[in-house]
Design goal:
Blueprint: H1 2-25
Amino acid sequence: MADYILKINSHYNIKSSIIFNKINRD
């Protein structure tokens, strides 16, 4: 169960950093 949460957490971290990078570029 903890492994599953870690995978989701890292997935959202990557997604939010990509979005953050796009905002910074604008």
